[in-house]
């Protein structure tokens, strides 16, 4: 028998003899992994260190993302408001508090500078600074109210604001929730403008303005008395389950300032939650402006368009 | 014979008993395993909520039960109204649902044998799962020795995903038993002449045809096996003529008895059988693609990942089971199939091997297990095979995986005897001590883990991926079918005010109703199909379902769950509560 075959035979014999030990090692490993992640109750320990690091306006993120519901439950809506957890992106935040378990990090925060760090039980809490924040002058999603905005369907027909409309939600496989407070247009309940949350192509939450295009013409959302920055930036998309079929017509979003079209973007199925940016030119840094978002499509069927926009 | 692994033939006889069962002992052990497994399943069944598909099968079984009752009271009318009762859920065969119906009718309504109605529906699947475990013991013991059979049976029962599915009023665990039974009958038919076992193959094939469409793989396996069994040395002590005659007898019985029995036991086929069977086949051959998360990505249409079945097996079957399987497989390939392989290679090269090799102990058995395993996993090499069922769609391969694992343990035992039972350890390892120690060492982790993860079977992952949290980190699915509602019933019973409306998300209405009929959920709680107007919103986490969670946020104006449940620090289901909702007294 060659030396190689002898070595293989030796290895095989001892592997067989050691095989039962694998069972013991697995038993120990199972116990280790079962207790490695913090228990649900341990998340209650987060409140104090997060409060110590967080200042008003700071974003709180959780890594890995699957642990976020536990952190939300422990920290509450004030620390993790809907506008933060369903944020369009990170560009508007100057600082963030990252809660990390199991050594995970949020890849979106790569490049942010660490200011402070605390370890509490199985949690690492870090305060991070955005190297290039882009402050928002006005968030059009936040600003949606009858005091600042009006909505028009073709006709033109004004869509009245309803402060206590019946909430509508699609249920399993259905449309995103239409909130209690919304501009409700005539016809289908889908013709409304309100703040909702859709799931993007990664099934992440995106807070946005529901803006289903009408059968013909444009849906117009008009804001009054807007103080502008240098540009209007934003994102648009559809609930991904609808968009991924890639069967719908393109959706056009035009933005007009004081009647001048400053830019347009076309959303095609498959684009996902996609960004747009429109420079404001002569309108930059002016006040008292009228800003219109006009949504249209050559075929309005299943065009569950939703967008967010900010000026900065 | 290969020299890489120890020559253990005679040791096997000593260490593990005779490969062939003697008298009543092995059937008795098999029966005890079946009863014991069923008892364990029954003991834990009330912790498990009802899966979405179970709700549909409750409804179907209820319809079939009414037909059985009609048949008993007015057979003429029953035969005239077959379609009205059997149309329900006709996209799936009827045998197991018929058993659900009979169990409910007799075990619940007539004799009150069960503590809850849901358990009466689930009992046939649990009993069949137990029988499957016993059958694996019997086959392993008969083919390779009692130790192989025993270890294989427990390995199978303790695969967390199998253990989970074995509780459910579904077809996935029953088809494991039926599939294995048919393969076992075929294997027995090769071992002896006569028509008893070929007839058993035909009958069992008819039963598995009427259980689930996994049955369609069986003729492929048996035909391939029959052809390869012609290789000299593959079947000991038989001429090629005998091999051919016995295999053909079984295949003929399958061809004639199988479809006939399917037709006879599935009344939906009685009118227009060709059209209806074709529709059934098309339903499954062109099945709609549901969503499934794998490695962080949601798959919902081809191309599906070809690695899915293999990686999910590696991530969900206990590691020691996998390593014992690999060891047993290599052992079998080298020992059982080396000589037939050499013969085939010699024929291809143009020279004849000297005579027909006599190999140990019976290569055709290992070949059958290997083909049963390979053909079933082979389906997932196609990137059009749907992956939405997770591991349950190839669970029929697991009895063969664990039989090979049993072989691996047998090899480990022999090696341990050679290397450990000397010197200081010798007194400790006298008699059956070594066997007990080895068996305890290899079985403890799977058995304890299967118990630990219950009722979160679909959220469980093995140590290779870091347990449940490791699976979540990797973006592996945490569950489907909305069955985890059963894990928040305590919270709902306590937290919900009288008459509260609960958005049940992925839980089927019939499944929700069964929780109430079982007394696990308060009768006054009302299931609703939308979170709009609801007082509580359930969210069963699946990647593609996240929009359902967001519906809660907007409807309730909050993003803070009121209650979260899950496994080992990983959330699987959480519940939102409408702000301002009255708190029940005493909370």
Report on the architecture of this protein.
- The complex is a heterodimer of chains A (about 300) and B (about 575).
- Chain A is an alpha+beta fold.
- In chain A, about 20% of the residues lie in helices and about 35% in strands.
- In chain A, strands 5, 8, 9, 10, 11, 13, 16 and 18 form an eight-stranded antiparallel β-sheet that branches.
- In chain A, β10 (about 190-200) and β11 form a beta hairpin.
- The mean pLDDT of chain A is about 95.
- In chain B, the strands form two sheets. A five-stranded mixed β-sheet of chain B has the order 4-3-5-7-6, sandwiched between helices. Chain B has a two-stranded antiparallel sheet with strand order 1-2.
- In chain B, α23 (about 510-515) links the parallel β3 and β4 (about 525-530).
- The interface between A and B is large, with 68 and 74 residues.
Q: What can be said about this structure in brief?
A:
The complex is a heterodimer of chains A (312) and B (587). With 312 residues, chain A is α+β, with helices and mostly antiparallel strands.
Q: How would you describe this structure in keywords?
A:
heterodimer; A: 312 residues; alpha+beta; 8-stranded antiparallel β-sheet; 6-stranded antiparallel β-sheet; 18 strands; B: 587 residues; mainly alpha; 2 domains; 5-stranded mixed β-sheet; two-stranded antiparallel sheet; 7 strands; 5% strand; globular; disordered N terminus
In order across it, which strands form the biggest sheet of chain B?
A: 4-3-5-7-6
Shape of chain B from CA axes?
globular
What's the pLDDT, averaged over the residues of chain B?
91
- Uncertain segments of chain B are 1-18, 354-360
Task: Output mean pLDDT of chain A.
Answer: 96
Q: How many runs of DSSP E, i.e. beta strands of chain A?
A: 18
> Which structural class matches the secondary elements of chain B?
mainly alpha
Q: If helices are DSSP runs of H or I spanning 4 or more residues, what is the number of helices of chain B?
A: 24
What helical percentage do the residues of chain B reach? 55-70%
Largest sheet of chain B: 5 strands, mixed
Helix content of chain A: 10-25%
How many individual helices of chain A? 5
Can you write the helix and strand succession of chain A as a string? Answer: HHEHHEEEEEEEEEEEEHEEEEE
How many domains of chain B, as an integer? Answer: 2
Strand content of chain A: 25-35%
CA(first)-CA(last) distance of chain A? 78 Å
Query: What is the CA-atom radius of gyration of chain A, in angstroms?
Result: 26 Å
What structural class is derived from the secondary structure elements of chain A? alpha+beta
